[in-house]
Design goal:
two-stranded antiparallel sheet; 17-stranded mixed β-sheet; single chain; globular; alpha+beta; Diaminopimelate Epimerase, Chain A, domain 1
Length: about 290
């Protein structure tokens, strides 16, 4: 029986330390793979996401960006943060002369700019401008999570925000409480089913000056770093004064599952409009291999 082979790389994203951050598999040339095969391969990799690069002619890529598709173990996504940064980082290795790598994702064109920071390549993506959706009752969220209402920061709204993927930002008063939170996906899913369009819940707490501690629990477990949610959180933080306009902030995620991740974030506030949402970090390679089908 004839076989086909597809090279892949395994990267750790939003970290400069191997075996930390969020894991990503990248298929550098996915031409010839069907949609069904991409989904099955993502499930085989069993990571939070796998990306598939579909090379095109140079003129098209210069105009529209490099075509990339993103799959979780369960579905295709229009956008996700660590797959965007990790895939752009991989492409940057092949195109060192380019300061910016643009990806053509299902959500549209997303640019990632690169520079050297502390002797390592640092990438920063600009996400689409945020859309601010519905606000949620603190009491209902507290009930769904099984925590006292006083544990949530009622001075900050719980709001759904999207920069390509919707997330509902839930602020806790204390980082220590957030770190001890024990909640099942089913508890969260039951609430989300009652409020359509809210995406996932993204839990945050202040953790020092210009720093946020974050957690995100979804159907594939707990996510070490959620770059798409970090963009939503940044827009929310700048809108409500947690971060100042253009102030560099740091969102740290993954410590509870021993995959610490660092996402450097900033956004611009013009009167009441939030634009220029940027999320950046480092990437390290871990594995090179081949998939045989």
């Amino acid at each position: 029986m004839a076989t086909r082979q597809f090279p892949f790389v395994h990267l750790d994203v939003f970290t400069s330390v191997r075996l930390e951050g969020n894991q990503l598999a990248v298929i550098p040339d996915a031409r010839g793979l069907s949609d069904d095969e991409m989904q099955k391969l993502a499930k085989e990799m069993n990571l939070s996401e796998t990306t598939f690069i579909l090379p095109r002619d140079a003129a098209t890529e210069a105009r529209e960006g490099v075509r990339v598709r993103i799959f979780t173990v369960q579905e295709e996504l229009p956008f996700a943060g660590h797959p965007t940064l990790g895939t752009a980082w991989y492409l940057k290795q092949q195109r060192p002369e380019q300061a910016e790598i643009a990806l053509h994702l299902n959500v549209g064109r997303v640019p990632v700019r690169f520079e050297m920071r502390d002797g390592q390549l640092f990438g920063e993506m600009r996400q689409t401008d945020p859309q601010f959706g519905q606000t949620h009752q603190h009491s209902r969220i507290a009930e769904a999570l099984g925590v006292p209402l006083a544990e949530l920061d009622e001075n900050l709204p719980i709001q759904t925000v999207s920069t390509g993927m919707p997330f509902t930002i839930v602020a806790f008063r204390h980082s220590s409480t957030l770190g001890q939170l024990k909640v099942s996906w089913q508890q969260i899913a039951d609430y989300l089913e009652s409020v359509q369009g809210s995406g996932f819940l993204y839990f945050v707490a202040r953790d020092g000056e210009r720093r946020l501690h974050a957690r995100m629990i979804f159907y594939n477990g707990e996510d070490p770093a959620t770059g798409s949610a970090a963009g939503c959180c940044t827009a929310w933080a700048v809108k409500y004064g947690v971060l100042a306009s253009e102030q560099q902030g740091l969102i740290q995620q993954g410590r509870e599952i021993l995959r610490p991740s660092s996402m450097f974030v900033r956004a611009t506030k013009n009167t009441e409009t939030i634009t220029n949402v940027r999320v950046g970090g480092h990437v390290v390679p871990v594995i090179d291999g081949k998939v045989t089908l």
